[in-house]
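User: Just a sanity check before I run the rest of the batch. Below are the structure tokens for the first item. I only need the designed sequence back.
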């Protein structure tokens, strides 16, 4: 959902109040956090059925986070709908033309639509000042550990590789033959952990975040819901949209967010980083790593 600054404020409040909610109320909170678009168009009974609780549990949850009732709680989401999504008529016509080409054309259109929508929804819910605060913390740290497993392992390593062109404090984990908890065993409040996992959440990532917090590390969490355990534990939490017609979660918005975060880190860095990046690439040219046409 675009234009959701108000409803995102409600979602953030709901996430912050998570530990104070009853187990039944947490069921409602989880459904709302994972399906915010449904709230503005659903009755209290429909939300209750979807969350598999009684309607009065939905009302109690709303009151517990500071609203008079469900209607009051739902209003910010209804307002977001009334504002409407951004209009992209040219894109819409293009996608419709693709769909007419046949079954694979329809799949192609669905994949493109989901990728664009994921980018839009991700950055609509992230404030520039939150990215800046996370970037400044990362730049000011002694070491940065970037953790991803499964599909997010390559995302974490790509981020670390790009960062290494100008900085030396970035480390992708888990290392070969190691575990994430082993890799941060001697980390402390001077260090940062960037953790990435989407539903179903990987236990080794959740456990590493818990250990990191116990050791005083600051945590940047990247996940697909405010209900995610690593988002709720993070000092800086960023929610990415990962919907896709395929069976695997999309990494498009995760990669885009990591690239944006790195750009903020570089912007926060000292001027010497420019010299480092230039020297890095000059050396690669001198060693013949890049192909150059004989001309």
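Assistant: Here's the designed sequence for the first item:
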């Amino acid at each position: 959902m675009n234009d959701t600054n108000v409803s995102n404020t409600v979602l953030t409040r709901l996430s912050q109040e998570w530990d104070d909610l009853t187990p039944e109320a947490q069921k409602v909170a989880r459904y709302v956090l994972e399906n915010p678009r449904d709230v503005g168009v659903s009755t209290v009974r429909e939300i209750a059925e979807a969350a598999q609780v009684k309607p009065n549990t939905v009302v109690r949850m709303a009151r517990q986070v500071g609203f008079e009732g469900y209607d009051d709680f739902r209003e910010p989401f209804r307002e977001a709908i009334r504002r409407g999504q951004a209009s992209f008529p040219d894109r819409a016509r293009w996608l419709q033309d693709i769909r007419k080409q046949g079954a694979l054309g329809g799949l192609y259109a669905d994949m493109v639509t989901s990728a664009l929508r994921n980018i839009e929804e991700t950055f609509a819910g992230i404030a520039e000042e939150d990215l800046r605060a996370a970037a400044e913390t990362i730049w000011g740290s002694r070491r940065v550990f970037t953790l991803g497993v499964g599909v997010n392992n390559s995302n974490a390593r790509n981020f670390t590789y790009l960062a290494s062109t100008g900085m030396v404090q970035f480390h992708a984990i888990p290392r070969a033959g190691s575990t994430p908890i082993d890799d941060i065993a001697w980390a402390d409040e001077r260090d940062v952990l960037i953790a990435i996992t989407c539903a179903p959440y990987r236990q080794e990532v959740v456990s590493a975040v818990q250990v990191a917090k116990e050791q005083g590390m600051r945590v940047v969490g990247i996940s697909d819901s405010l209900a995610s355990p690593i988002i709720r534990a993070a000092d800086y939490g960023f929610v990415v949209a990962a919907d896709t017609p395929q069976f695997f979660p999309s990494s498009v918005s995760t990669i885009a967010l990591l690239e944006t975060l790195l750009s903020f880190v570089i912007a926060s860095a000292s001027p010497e980083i420019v010299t480092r990046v230039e020297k890095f690439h000059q050396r690669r040219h001198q060693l013949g790593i890049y192909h150059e046409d004989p001309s």
